[in-house]
Amino acid sequence: MFTGIVEELGEITAVETLDDACRFRLRGPVVTEGARHGDSIAVNGVCLTVVDHEGDEFTADVMAETLNRSSLGVLTTGSRVNLERPTAVGARLGGHIVQGHVDGTGEILERKPSEHWELVKISLPADLARYVVEKGSITVDGISLTVVDAGPDFFTVSLIPTTLALTTLGLKQPGDPVNLEVDVIAKYVERLLGGHVAPGDAR
Question: Which among 44, 49, 112, 198 is least surrounded, fewest beta carbons within 10 Å?
Answer without folding.
Answer: 198
